[in-house]
């Protein structure tokens, strides 16, 4: 019956529609409704704008990060997409003229020279000579090589070499490379030669030829590609070099005018990191071109098209060996041309099939957007639901005038469209502006997050404005708005005129509430009910305002649940933000190694005519030279020696030591029947200033601990360890005593000493054996053969040193923290090292002697990896990056040569800064997300409370008309707000604490000793937010609802 009434079209309605189109009437009605309810409309627009802004920010951030990854890849590796290797001479012009090629660079190789015999190994046999790349020729396709010392070549007889060769002599290669036998086919080819150490001004003689291998299947000779790995064959004694240098040219002399190296220690050498040797550059030499490789970019849009281009020039779309190796690893190789594809670049260009990184970030973006959409739907839906509830009589009147269900739904959708038309553009602008502000503010940290080297100097502050991203964000916002409006529109279409005028839909009890009322009536008929008991209790404790507040909350439970849920979400987000901030700060503090700003590690090998004291003087000189860099100041240095030792009964906490073995997946070192513990140990030798600092800070006697002829050590407790899974702090020493350092363990034939331990209560020396004779070191597949054997320690112990340990300390200089071992660590002054090493001065290590067997023997046979003096130099820095550059120049100039086996600089200050910036950037993104989602939740609370109070104007007028005073009225409102507050706080705190606990559990997977904390300051902030939101919402709503007289409010029946 009601349906028939609504579908009829009265004459008045036709007249009205004559003035406006049918659709215009409802559009005008919706616009008028939004205008009359400004507060709700503004809050709704804010909700739509916030939702769209956050979605825009999420996807714009992802797009910007991808653009940053692309830029970083171009900065570090170059813009080339394909490198065609070994292009025939008659095809070079064809490649350049190819319409698919947009830029190209010819990498010209003039051949290879065989290095001196001492360099004969997997990675040092050749010196490849290529044309010096200039900016005009390279065209941005690869980063240009950095001249670390000297200048670029200009004349045909000048050469620039890799910095790794600086300071080496023709006899020094064996210190860098494993020696390998050869096929003998190029024994007559002149090897590279020079006089003395390679320095600026040295002259090097080279005979350039072609690396050549014999194809196993065809038996034919073929030239190697310039960066192919060394061709070897297996034999009973190991690998043999099977390739050789063919067609050598005349021996020509080149003057060394410079050395090139990556500009930063963290950068790779993108020019010479592949191939079995070194790289040198010349300029227009008077020698023939051997091979040409072409780097190129294309106008192609897919990986399939790239593969097609590769196939055109190689005959095989899969003639790519990006993983290194040689052409024997490529199936169905045809011809001599192969290719590299710049997969990482094309991945960020969206051209590869490997979408893992795209999928990860965009999946995360969609997940975050789903959270935002869910929160936004709650806000916008609530706004529409309140609007429909507030205008029940209006929809009923429209229905009585003949408006159909579809037209009523269209009215709500018209409001949704207007909100979207205003809110979405605002949201897009706010989202872009907010993203730009965040990337500008945290540009340095974002640059570190993307690529520490690529953006170390410039940061990353630009954003990618992608039309597709903006369209997607707008579409998701539109979907959010119309999903929010669907249920209210459906409810509006079901309002009948009679129900609307009677107001029977204003208060609707749920089935559960109706069931409870029926039970209450039946119980009342029997004389009593629990509800009545509680009502009497409320009247006695809180008076009539308390009873009315409870009834109001029960009557409008749905709206109350929305307000409580929104408050709980806001509180939970605040607590989660605090938890993340707390644990990120802890992570930054713990992961910090505690070392100095700059640390330089040196490996100094003693020449046969040098003593330990000589080596210490060289290290001290290097320390003082590095400290002369502007802005640097020395913080001390130390030498580290690892060895095996025994400790008197009671010195070591054996339970703590055993737990170390469990964490590090190592066997228990053992304790003898009398309680003596055998274990690995670390001995740190400190410079005098650092040693005296330990003595003074721990109130130890300098005279007792300062005699280098009769050293007394200090043991360290409170050392930090990291087993690859978690961080922990250990106290291994229980008391002082004597540590017996095992300084000379006898070697065993075809075996190497690896550790001292205990078997059946007796000390033993454990060896790792690899067969009998050279032939038995490898199995039939060429794999090494290892075995385990233990011998009584007293049979193989040739020498030891009884070292008194006079004190146990937990206070020591910061640089030591990074080098304190997971095993027992003891400390001595560096002046004591010659005393401990005195009995080892005459020992010369060979390849079968382990450094653990003779820890203080720093002399080695020529051509073997011997023991070296491991030194760590610590420096403070005012400008760590500038100091790093200055120190690298000194290292390149003075701390080089065969006696310095390896030198490496670590910029801890820059690393710590990068970690801190990354942590702060991650925290900033998290806080921005939490702030906006929290703002949506707060807006939802404001919208719900204000509108629900405003809709109760007649109720308030009626209460005042029957005599309720202002104080009682405010008390009722306060009790309602208190109910919202404590429920929202309880649920929000519980939810936030649970999620924070999960964060804590995730941190516990990596850190020991971490305590679960819900940051108190953030709890106070959450309470403040709840109080502020409720106070503002209530005050605003009461001010709006109190306007007008009581009589006028009670008579508001018209539209």
From TrEMBL:
Residues 367-496, 928-1043 form the ABC3 transporter permease C-terminal domain. The keyword Phosphoprotein does not apply. Keywords: Cell membrane, Membrane, Transmembrane, Transmembrane helix. The chain crosses the membrane at residues 42-66, 357-381, 416-443, 463-487, 562-584, 924-945, 980-1000, 1012-1038. The keyword Calcium does not apply. InterPro entries: ABC3_permease_C, Macrolide_Exporter_MacB. It is a multi-pass membrane protein. It is found in: Cell membrane. GO terms for cellular component: plasma membrane. It comes from the Bacteria. GO terms for molecular function: transmembrane transporter activity. It holds the Pfam family FtsX. Its main location: membrane. Belongs to the ABC-4 integral membrane protein family. PANTHER family: ABC TRANSPORTER PERMEASE YTRF, MEMBRANE COMPONENT OF TRANSPORTER-RELATED. This is ABC transporter permease YtrF. It comes from Collinsella intestinalis.
